[in-house]
Design goal:
With 421 residues, the protein is an alpha+beta fold. It has helices spanning 45-52, 62-70, 96-108, 114-132, 135-147, 161-165, 169-179, 195-205, 255-265, 272-280, 311-327, 332-349, 353-365, 373-381, 385-395, 412-417; strands at 6-7, 13-18, 24-31, 75-80, 85-92, 185-191, 228-233, 239-246, 286-293, 298-306, 401-407. It has a six-stranded mixed sheet, sandwiched between helices. A five-stranded mixed sheet has the order 7-11-8-10-9, with helices on both faces.
Length: 421
C-alpha cells in the first residue's frame, strides 16, 4: 500500500514511501507548472525557469550546489513537461536533510540573475534549433500542434526562438512568483526515510506561507472532424512519420486498457506493428507506439522512420492492423503476454528509489487516486479481449486521425488518399 499524502497548513503536499531495505533516498519537489500554463508570448518560460534554478540561489552559487550533492555521491536533475516541473535528487539516506534543504532553496530562493537569464536564453534557442534538425523528434512537435492547434497543450515545451528571446527577467520573476509556492507543490521522498522525518524536514525548509490560489490551465479542446495531414518537405535520408489519434485522459476508467492496447500494437519488439511492418515486410527500421495522457486529454501515437518509397505501403499496413484489432478478438496468449509485459515493467519500476519516486510523484501531483501497485496489477488482470476491441474502436477513428511527416515526400496526394480506416 502506497503512503497517503499529507497536506501541510500552507497547502504543501508531502508524501513518503519508506523502503527500509534501501541505502538511498530519492527526493522530488513537483510543481504544477508547465507548457499548459503558458501562452504564445511566454511559451517556453517553464523550461527556461527550470534551467535557471540550477544557476544558483541567494545563498549558494551554481558550483556550490553541484559540489554539495555530488560531493556526497549523489545526483540531481530537473525536467519540465506539459503539466508539471520536477526537481530531484538521489542521495544516501543519511543525507536526506541536505537534499530537502538544497531543493527547497532552489525552488524558493533562486537568484535569477539577469546575465544568467540572457545566457540561458541563448543556450535554449540552440537547443530548439538542434531538435528541429532531428526529424525523428521534430515530427512529434509538429504532430502535437496538429492535435491541439492554437492551444497551450499544442505548443512546444521549449518554446520558439521568438518566444524565448522575448522573455525578460521581469517575466521570469512574475512566473516564478505565481507558480513556485508551497500550495502548488509536492515534496516526495522514496527510500530509507520515515514519513515523520520527511514531514519534519518539510516544516523546516518549506514552511513559507502560500501567496495565492494555484493557477488553472486552459482546458484542451478537440473539435477535429476529419483526418489531418501535415508534410514538412526536407531533403533527409530517411522519412519520419508520426501518426496520432485523440484518446482518453489520465483519469479515464479505460486508461489501463489503452496501455495494454499500446503494448499489443507497438510498445516492444514482439508487438504487432514491429513484427509485421519491420520484421515481416522490412518497410522500416524503427516503429513504435506510445500513449500520452494528460489531465483532460490524451493521444495514441505511432511513430516510424523509413525510406520515402515505403511510406504509403507502411501506412496501409498500419491501418490494416488497427482495423484488425478493432474487429478481431485478440488471442488469449497474446493478451496474457501483453499483461505480463506491463506488469513486469511496473514492478521493475518499484525496485529503484528514483524510478518509484518519479512514478508516484507524477500520480500524486496529477491527483490520481489509484496508487496501490497490487490493485493496479489486479486491474490489469481483469482486462479482457472485449475491452481491447472496445477501446480500440473508441480511439482509432477517421475523425481523430492526425499524420505528420518530415522527409523528401514526392506523392502528397497519394498520402491523403490512404488516410482512412
Amino acid at each position: 500500500m502506497e503512503k497517503s499524502t499529507e497536506i501541510r497548513n500552507n497547502g504543501l503536499a508531502v508524501a513518503a514511501k519508506p523502503m527500509s531495505h534501501m541505502e538511498s533516498i530519492s527526493l522530488g519537489i513537483w510543481i504544477k507548472a508547465g507548457a499548459r500554463y503558458e501562452n504564445r508570448n511566454n511559451n517556453g518560460i517553464s523550461h527556461l525557469l527550470e534551467h535557471l534554478l540550477f544557476k544558483g540561489t541567494e545563498t549558494r552559487g551554481m558550483r556550490e550546489i553541484k559540489e554539495a550533492i555530488e560531493g556526497r555521491g549523489g545526483s540531481f536533475n530537473g525536467f519540465t513537461s506539459e503539466e508539471v516541473t520536477c526537481y530531484l535528487v538521489k542521495l544516501l539516506a543519511k543525507d536526506a536533510e541536505l537534499g530537502v534543504e538544497i531543493l527547497s532553496d532552489m525552488v524558493l530562493n533562486p537568484k535569477l540573475d539577469e546575465k544568467e537569464i540572457e545566457k540561458e536564453k541563448s543556450v535554449i534557442v540552440e537547443e530548439i534549433n538542434m531538435y528541429r534538425d532531428i526529424p525523428a523528434q521534430h515530427v512529434h512537435e509538429i504532430l502535437t500542434e496538429m492535435l491541439w492547434p492554437d492551444q497551450p497543450l499544442g505548443m512546444p515545451l521549449a518554446g520558439t526562438p521568438e518566444s524565448v528571446n522575448s522573455t525578460h527577467k521581469r517575466d521570469v520573476d512574475a512566473y516564478k512568483n505565481t507558480f513556485y509556492n508551497p500550495n502548488n507543490m509536492l515534496l516526495i521522498g522514496v527510500g530509507r526515510i520515515k514519513e515523520g522525518k520527511l514531514l519534519s524536514l518539510a516544516g523546516k525548509y518549506l514552511s513559507r506561507p502560500a501567496r495565492q490560489e494555484p493557477v488553472k490551465f486552459e482546458k484542451a479542446v478537440n473539435d477535429q472532424r476529419e483526418p489531418l495531414l501535415k508534410v514538412a518537405k526536407k531533403d533527409t535520408e530517411q522519412t519520419h512519420m508520426a501518426l496520432a489519434f485523440h484518446a482518453m485522459n489520465r483519469l479515464s476508467p479505460d486508461r489501463y486498457a489503452a496501455s495494454i492496447l499500446n503494448v499489443i500494437l507497438g510498445a516492444n519488439m514482439s508487438s504487432r506493428l514491429f513484427h509485421v511492418v519491420r520484421d515481416e515486410l522490412a518497410l522500416c527500421y524503427e516503429i513504435s507506439s506510445s500513449v500520452r495522457k494528460y489531465e483532460d486529454a490524451g493521444a495514441f501515437v505511432i511513430g516510424a522512420g523509413l525510406d520515402e518509397s515505403n511510406l504509403i505501403k507502411a501506412l496501409e499496413v498500419i491501418f490494416k492492423e488497427l482495423n484488425r484489432i478493432k474487429s478481431e478478438p485478440i488471442p488469449d496468449e497474446e493478451l496474457n503476454r501483453a499483461k505480463e509485459f506491463y506488469k513486469g515493467q511496473l514492478l521493475f519500476t518499484m525496485e529503484d528509489t528514483m524510478s518509484r519516486m518519479l512514478w508516484l510523484g507524477e500520480k500524486i501531483i496529477s491527483k490520481e487516486k489509484e496508487l496501490d501497485v497490487k490493485k493496479i496489477v489486479d486491474r490489469i488482470a481483469r482486462i479482457n479481449k472485449d475491452d481491447i476491441m472496445r477501446v480500440a474502436g473508441t480511439i482509432f477513428k477517421n475523425e481523430s486521425m492526425n499524420l505528420a511527416v518530415i522527409g523528401p515526400v514526392k506523392d502528397e496526394s497519394g498520402l491523403k488518399g490512404v488516410l482512412h480506416l
